[in-house]
Structure formats: C-alpha cells, structure tokens
Input
Amino acid sequence: MLALVVCVAAGAQNAEKLYKEGKALLDEKKYTAAVPKLKAAAEKGHKKAQYRLGRCYDKGHGVEENDAQAFKWYAKSAAQDYAKAQYAIGKCYKDGKGVEKDRKKAVDYFSRAAKQDNADGQYALGKSYMKGKGIAADEKKARSWLKKAVTNPKGGEDILVKIRKDAASGDEDAKKILTLIK
Output
C-alpha cells in the first residue's frame, strides 16, 4: 500500500515538473518543444496541462489546429473544475468549435467559470443574460455579472479596455454594456 502511495505521489510530482517545463516553453513561444511535455503531463491528469494543451490545439501552436482535440483536452480540465477550461468549453459550445453548438451548455460552463471568479466567464455570462442567449434575458443579472467582470483584479481591466474600444468602433453590444456597468 505504501508503495502505491509513493508511486502516485511521484507521478503527480512528475506531471507538475513536466507541466512547468512545458509552460516555460510556451511562455517563450517554443510551441513545438512545449507540446510533448504538456501532453505527457496532461495524460497524467494535470488539469492545467490539459487546458494548455487544449489551447495549443485551439490556436495551432506546435500542433495542427484541431477543434475536436482542443475540446477534448479542455473538457478533461474542466471536469476537474479548472475555471479557465470551463470558460474555454463554454466558448466551444457557444461557437460550435469541436462540438455541436449549444447555447444552454455554453451558459452552464460560463456560469461555472464565473462562480470561480474567472473574469472571462463573468463577462460571457453577463453578455448571455444581456442578450438572452442560452438563458432568459435578465438585465439585473447581466449588470451584476458584467460589473464583476470589469472590476475583477484578474483580467477585468483588459475586458474593460476591449469593451471601450469596441464601443468606440460602433459595436452596439459594447455600447449597451458600458451603459449597464455605469
């Protein structure tokens, strides 16, 4: 029994080491070198490696772009309650990338990410409430989630900058969002 515990612990440490090496290579934009390390860690169940490998397939970084593979790896990570992956799965369902389009499932995943304080998830959930896509329109809930998104210390400022830029270029949704979050 002790040997099994030691093997499991060693495997987890190995997955973390592989993930950190792979992420460092990603950060250096050495995608082709990063993918094998991320894949090895992802196959060992490392949720952040699964998410990052999904992103590689989503964006074609170090591998051929493949929406089905991106969805597969995002789903494995999202199943472990990783908020970034939950948001990514929501986008896949919203856009029909790697999976059949399903607005209700998109909202479900955006909601999961939002409740874990993920700014992108909060923004997507707020927009869903604002537009009534995949969920009943609700201006009060839209306002609440959109405000949480733009004031989120992890990414909120970037979201607000994008909204302002989109509004300045004539995007009606962005203009409405700015009105809602005042």
Observations:
- Residues 2-11 have pLDDT under 50 and may be disordered.
- The chain has ten helices and no strands.
- The two ends are 59 Å apart (CA to CA).
